[in-house]
Design a protein that fits this description.
There is one protein chain. The protein is an alpha/beta fold. It has a single domain, classed as Rossmann fold, CATH 3.40.50. The chain has eight helices and seven strands, in the order ααβαβαββαβαααββ. The protein has a seven-stranded mixed beta sheet. Strand 1, helix 3 and strand 2 form a beta-alpha-beta unit. The longest helix is centred in the middle third of the chain and has 14 residues.
């Protein structure tokens, strides 16, 4: 029987979830890298977009605001953050779908989405669950679709190298620091896998990766 890893909340401990948005906004300067993620995604009107590990739906709402004619879905395993996300979407006046589920067992049929985006979720996953999640993304993408990830990557700069040992102790971030997300994307079948951009943060370097599911 397949055993799943324990669920890790957004800030590792459930009690810190109410602080999640403030940390991302002020400490991580999330608007900068999330806007670049959306820009690079090249979303077209009518396309189906999945925000994988959507958390409190900040990115999900941003995608819908920038691309109101796209069909936008967010998925997260934490009902507490989804509740916050639904309130956020209502306040923003946007219509989107927020589902509860795990990234490595996506509750969607094959070829459901044109774009899958993920922001600061993969460093929570163990190595096997990262691999399973990427394979699941490949399954639910339509041919010609693309997968874009913003998450911790290879440390760049003195500060990022200094905080790297701390992050490895706190999170499942070792794969990220070794650049293995790129390898996992290729092994899952993604083509034209690219390291598009880097962002310096208090907790280390973020990388923006992209892979395509090429039409056969």
């Amino acid at each position: 029987m397949k055993m799943n890893s324990p669920y890790i909340p957004a800030l590792r401990w459930k009690e810190l979830t109410p602080l999640y948005d403030a940390v991302l906004r002020w400490v991580m300067q999330e608007e900068h890298f999330k806007r670049e993620l959306i820009r690079q995604a090249g979303i077209q009107p009518g396309q189906q977009v999945l925000d994988l590990g959507c958390g409190t739906a900040t990115l999900t709402v941003m995608v819908k605001q920038v691309h109101p004619e796209a069909e936008v879905t967010g998925l997260d395993g934490d009902p507490q953050v989804l509740q916050i996300g639904r309130a956020k979407a209502e306040k923003a006046g946007v219509t989107l779908t927020l589902d509860q589920g795990m990234s490595y067992e996506l509750p969607y049929p094959e070829a459901s989405f044109d774009r899958v985006l993920s922001s600061l979720m993969f460093h929570h996953l163990t190595t096997p669950d990262k691999q399973r999640a990427i394979q699941e993304v490949y399954r639910v993408l339509r041919p010609g679709g693309s997968f874009l990830i913003v998450d911790f990557g290879r440390p760049k700069g003195i500060w990022s190298r200094m905080v790297s040992p701390v992050m490895v102790r706190l999170e499942e971030v070792s794969d990220n620091h070794k650049g293995l997300l790129l390898t996992m994307l290729r092994l899952a079948g993604f083509e034209a896998v690219t390291d598009l951009a880097h962002f310096a943060t208090l907790f280390g370097t973020l990388s923006l990766y992209q892979g395509h599911k090429v039409s056969k």
